[in-house]
Amino acid sequence: MRQVGADGLEFVRALQAVVGSRAVGLREPVFGGNEKRYLQECIDTGYVSSTGPFVARFENDLADYAAAHNVIAVVNGTAALHLALVALGIKPGDEVIVPALTFVATANAVAMAGAVPHFVDVSWETWGISAEKLRSYLSELLQQRDGSFFNRKTGRPVTAVVPMHTLGFLADADGVAEVAKEFGLALVEDAAEALGSFVGGVHAGLAGQAGVFSFNGNKTITTGGGGAIITRDSSLAKRIRHLATTAKLPHRYEFEHDIVGYNYRMPNLNAALGVAQLEQLPAFLERQRTLHLIYAEALDSLEMGFSASERPGTVSNYWLQAFVLDSNCAESKNAIIETCLDNEIAVRPLWKPLNRLAAHHSSPSDDTPVADELYSRVICLPSSPKLAS
Amino acid sequence: MRQVGADGLEFVRALQAVVGSRAVGLREPVFGGNEKRYLQECIDTGYVSSTGPFVARFENDLADYAAAHNVIAVVNGTAALHLALVALGIKPGDEVIVPALTFVATANAVAMAGAVPHFVDVSWETWGISAEKLRSYLSELLQQRDGSFFNRKTGRPVTAVVPMHTLGFLADADGVAEVAKEFGLALVEDAAEALGSFVGGVHAGLAGQAGVFSFNGNKTITTGGGGAIITRDSSLAKRIRHLATTAKLPHRYEFEHDIVGYNYRMPNLNAALGVAQLEQLPAFLERQRTLHLIYAEALDSLEMGFSASERPGTVSNYWLQAFVLDSNCAESKNAIIETCLDNEIAVRPLWKPLNRLAAHHSSPSDDTPVADELYSRVICLPSSPKLAS
Question: pTM of the full predicted structure?
Fold first, then answer.
């Protein structure tokens, strides 16, 4: 029997009631503030590159917003993750626990540190790593030796865990942080999508040693390309800054570098855009929240599924709106997506779980039934804040 | 006996005759064209990030200028080097030949690929790797086995060489390319400083498989932060593009990635600046050349040394003006630099040879008498094109 709505036409009509009948992108940035003014200021002053006042201003504004003590702005979210891992001592040959359901950059950053991503499942409740399942998985998997924990199967040390806040919904990073402590793991939160998301009043990214954001063009705020690391640990922040600027030692004129460093600092030009965008963040977040309510009203009555929403005690930024198909509609997912695209409505599935990708196929992985099922049932919807204005 | 001019005052007076008596930076960018207009266009169209017309336009304009068949714009010069090395198959545990006299990023990019930089000396004639000395060094050092060449001392395969064009002066990349062929090495030219430099009418960066540029704020043209890879090899270019964009396979909506990739593409915002800057490149180069002549006239009569100039058959971009102290003045180098800085004239020495740095101290190295001597005798001078206008 053919499923009701399986051809996607009903879904498209419901979407069009929200987004209109013209072509609509998945996420377009909104430039409604001081963007032009600050960019002009860069040109007028000559500061476009690694020095210039907007970088510090962006970092300070972000530190204030997130109540993070230290912010280091870098070229993108992948660089932020890579740098945080290196600064925390993650070395070639280590294994780093990563959720199977995330953008591939989470695992690529681990590989850039020379380490091996080790995939675990996510939970239905949070769409992120479950602390309980992680604890029982690691208890089975790891063996303590000389104060470190090793994977019994591969013999490699497991040294970090990177929970990720899927689409802005909060993973249980505090729970994961407890597990991390038990097994001596560094914790870096991949909050690339979670600027403006809070748990118990605390901004995403502050549960462990470091958290990272992305300011790519499709994010809640954009710097063109950009990312940042936040941390409460000032000595870690100092180490990260040092690593981000080729590990150059302070000297009036000599070029001394004490360790292998990177060229990862955000240019002043991009930070200028970021300062202007950050001024509008509360307005963007309000619209993203409103858009969620509009979608819920338009789509949940279709009886094909439900609009994903924040769990109690958390505030999601609703960065990317997501509709979860009922399990009996899951096999129509691709047909629905294709009908939307045929009608110039930009939708997309979640990422294919990373343990299923050729790029990371040889990496160790737990079974990932929840990641697989979420992938099979979720459609991400047009999410530009302007759709709610 | 105290050296004439050893306190640097004479040198400062001669410099002030060129740069004036106000504070002067080492290199400040000139924004005299369409910079503001193109940046505004980014904001008006909403394209600031990884998609947008300025990236392709910048790449095409640069390909035209350098007569390079393929250009891939990336986030910075370090990323460009790293990406070129990875795309050419350089693997963890390989050794890569790098000149001792270069900015530390050349060696850091090798380390980012998991490989080990192996330092060689430069020549007085070119300030870059000497083909003859490299041939005789490698003939001694390398041992052929199963079609590859291994370092007899470390047992590691030596798989690439990265000649660098110091300050825009041309290394003998063609000669090095011949040696590279003899020993099966990939050749990536570090032309970070050499946009606008030519040898025999051919732009720097085209002697081997790939060449890289930097567009940092201190370079001849700037994109804020940025870099590019040029190559005549279209299939290599395709591989580089793929690696630069998380190795995502083309698909209407699925996220498939076949290998570990990077997030290295230049944002449209930065490319917009680059397009405007590239339009002014001929004017910048003319001023840089004029400035060299002005310095030569002002400084060479001091009888403390000479202004470095291009060797026959090559065209230098004169990116950074350099004065070579006579060997009997070398011990006054730091005093002269400090007197200049005290007088708010931004000068600097060359980079401390990389084999002398803590960051790369454990890497293999040949003896580097020429790099050491150049480091002991060269002072880089204020080089902003506007100083010659």
Answer: 0.97
